[in-house]
Specification:
With about 300 residues, this protein is an alpha+beta fold. The chain has helices at about 50-55, 65-80, 85-95, 205-220, 230-245, and strands at about 15-30, 35-45, 100-110, 115-120, 120-130, 135-145, 150-160, 185-195, 250-260, 260-265, 280-285, 290-295. The protein has 5 helices and 12 strands.
Length: about 300
């Protein structure tokens, strides 16, 4: 067995540890009117030394089980609020409670997408149905004596439109077999994340809804006329430009749009005059798929 390299010749550049998959359901009770929030939380702490790694000395280690318990204790003491606020509250707790913790990172994801049941126009007081449209999340990183760095995002937002999407005049080479598509189905599963440059006066829940609406508006266009999409790249870019135009506190946004293909089923193979290709029957194909990604950042942060 080869000898280990001496300690004097190496250095730990980064280290952190924590707990993932901490599941939490919080019930807000106002008499017989109840609201629920379900989260999955991950925590990561960075300590002011590496003796746990170098010498196996655990005296400074805040156990991951303690971090898990802290999620529930903080929820009981302060409530949960929106993901960004709950993540900041947890970061603040870790840094104020443990003097040897130099930074904390907390990620909070929504789970199950609970919505209140309704019947004949009346909202149920304490019954809910799971109807997730996508996953909302927030990630907060904070160093000791520094302001928190807040990012928010969404994932799994699946959308489809049946027309006004094309892909033509692309680069061709001897390996190209793809024909021009003048009109095609466009479907994707949207992931988006944005960073805040200023937290002053931010309504995180309202901003998250605004960002989601801006993405959907850019994808679909007006209900009657729609909007043309000559490439997924342009749809992505215009979505990011719209968000940065609407929310001055957002400094950067990145998106990922994989193609979810729906190919028209070729009825011509049956040699039956009664069966024509009329863009009614399609074959869903999820793999392989293209993926389009880009990050948009302000050239210079606007003065608020």
């Amino acid at each position: 067995m080869a000898a280990m390299i001496p300690d004097s010749q190496v250095k730990i550049t980064t280290s952190s540890y924590g707990k993932t998959g901490v599941k939490l359901l919080y019930v807000r009770r106002q008499g017989d009117w109840h609201d629920i929030t379900e989260y999955e939380v991950s925590t990561l702490l960075e300590l002011n030394d590496h003796k746990d790694y170098i010498r196996g000395d655990n005296s400074s280690v805040v156990p991951t089980d303690t971090q898990k318990n802290t999620v529930y204790v903080v929820a009981q003491k302060y409530g949960v609020g929106c993901p960004e606020v709950f993540a900041m509250t947890l970061c603040r707790h870790f840094l104020s409670t443990y003097s040897h913790v130099v930074s904390a990172r907390v990620r909070v994801e929504t789970v199950n997408g609970w919505t209140r049941m309704t019947k004949e126009g009346s909202q149920h007081r304490h019954a809910f149905i799971s109807s997730p449209k996508c996953t909302r999340y927030a990630e907060v990183f904070q160093k000791r004596n520094r302001d928190p760095e807040v990012a928010a995002g969404l994932s799994g937002l699946r959308v489809l439109k049946t027309t006004q999407s094309s892909f033509v005049d692309f680069h061709r080479c001897p390996n190209t077999t793809l024909p021009d598509a003048e009109d095609r189905i466009l479907s994707t599963v949207i992931s988006a994340e944005w960073k805040y440059s200023d937290l002053t006066g931010v309504d995180y829940c309202a901003t998250w809804e605004l960002v989601q609406d801006a993405i959907l508006d850019t994808f679909a266009g007006p209900p009657v006329t729609g909007i043309a999409s000559p490439s997924v790249q342009l749809t992505l870019y215009d979505s990011e430009r719209l968000v940065l135009g609407k929310v001055k506190q957002i400094s950067e946004m990145k998106m990922s749009l994989p193609n979810v293909h729906y190919f028209e089923f070729d009825m011509g193979r049956f040699h039956n005059p009664a069966l024509q290709n009329t863009k009614n029957v399609f074959l869903p194909t999820d793999k392989p798929s293209g993926i389009i990604q880009a990050t948009l950042r302000r050239n210079q942060l606007s003065k608020l």
